[in-house]
C-alpha cells in the first residue's frame, strides 16, 4: 500500500518506464530525493525494447543493475544480415570480438529491465525516503506544470483526487505522446515512416541460434529475429515491418505470420512459426524534440526522441538520457555547480545521431525500388572489410557515441 503522495521533493519524474527509472536510480545513488509518478495503474506487460547494448550495460554497472540483467537475458554475440531479394547472407557483425566487458547484445524484455531497475531503486531509495514501499506512485495523471525561479509546481490527478507537488526540477520521461512536452509547448518535428512494425512473441522451429540475431532486408519490409528469456522458455521476438498491418493483428495466426515472413525471407531459410503468443502494432516515426531543457523542466527518452524499432536503440538511448540527466541534476543539487546545460548539449546531438541512423537503416533495409535494392545488396559486402566492419559494429553497440 503506497503512502500518501509527497507534496515536495527535489525532482519530480513523470513517467515510470526504463528512462524514468534509470533517472531515479541515478538520483538515488547520489542521495537526491525524487517522486516518480505514472499515469498507468500497472507497469506495461508488453513493451517493445528488448536489446541492451554494451554501452548501456557499462553505464548501468555502477548502479548495481547490470549483473541482474545479464543473469536473466540472452546474449547474442553476432548479428547476421540477409537479403530476401537476393537470397543470401550479405554481412555479419561480431559483437563478441569487441573490447568491452560485455561483448554481446543482451536480449531481455523491457518489463524485465524495468523490474530490475525498480528492485534496485527500492534498495537505493531506502536511504533517501524511509517508509515507502514503492517508489512509483500510480495512477497519477499530470494536469499542469508551472515554474518559477526556485522550482516547478505540478498538479496531478490520482486516486485521491487532484494534488499538488512542488519540486526543484521536473523531468518528462512519459513517452512519445509526452504530456510534459505538450505542456511546455516544445516542438517535435519529424516524419512518419512509410511502414509500421508488428512485434510478435512466438514459438518456432529453425531460425537463428540463441547466440545470434538475424535480420532480413527486403523491398516488402524488414524482419528481425532474436531469442528472449521468457516463461515458458524458447520464445523468439520477431519484429516485422509492412505497409499495412493485418486488420486483426492482435489475433494473428501462425500461418498468417509465416506468410509475411516467407515473402521477405531468402529462399532456403528454414523457419516455421508454431505458435503466436502476442502481437502488437507500432507506427514508426523519426522525430527529435526542439529542446531537451525548458528552464527547470527536462525531456528524456521517447519524450525527447522517437524512431523505429530497427537497430534496437530506443531503450538504450532513453536509459542513457536518464543516467546523464540524473548525473547533471545530482551535481547541481549536491554541489551547487550548474552543469544542467550539459545535458541538452550532449544528449540532443546523441538523439539526432540515433534517429538519423535508424531513419537510414529503415530506408536501406526496406528499399522498395528493385534497382536500389540490388545496389544495396551489392554494396553490403563492403562492410566485411575488417576495419569498416569493426566500425559499424561499434556504432551498433553504442561504443562510438
CATH topology name of the largest domain: FAD/NAD(P)-binding domain
Helix percent reads: 25-40%
Number of strands: 19
CATH class of the largest domain: Alpha Beta
Main sheet properties: 8 strands, mixed
* Low-pLDDT runs: 129-133
The chain-level mean pLDDT equals: 91
Count of folded domains: 2
What is the 3D form? globular
| Rounded radius of gyration (Å) | 21 Å
- Identify the CATH architecture of the largest domain: 3-Layer(bba) Sandwich
Number of helices: 10
Q: What amount of the residues lies in strands? A: 25-35%
User: What order do the SSEs take from the amino end to the carboxyl end, as H and E?
Assistant: EHEEHHEEEEHEEEEHEEEEHEEEEHHHH
Category from helices, strands and their pairing: alpha+beta
End-to-end separation in angstroms reads 42 Å
CATH superfamily of the largest domain: FAD/NAD(P)-binding domain
Question: What's the structural blueprint in terms of helices and strands?
Answer:
Blueprint: E1 8-14, H1 18-29, E2 34-37, E3 51-52, H2 54-60, H3 66-70, E4 74-76, E5 78-83, E6 88-94, E7 105-107, H4 110-125, E8 136-137, E9 141-147, E10 152-158, E11 161-172, H5 179-183, E12 190-206, E13 212-217, E14 223-228, E15 235-242, H6 254-262, E16 271-288, E17 293-294, E18 297-299, E19 305-306, H7 314-335, H8 341-365, H9 370-379, H10 386-396
Parallel strand pairs: 1-2, 1-11, 2-8, 5-13, 11-18
Antiparallel strand pairs: 3-7, 4-7, 5-6, 9-10, 10-11, 12-15, 12-16, 13-14, 14-15, 16-19, 17-18
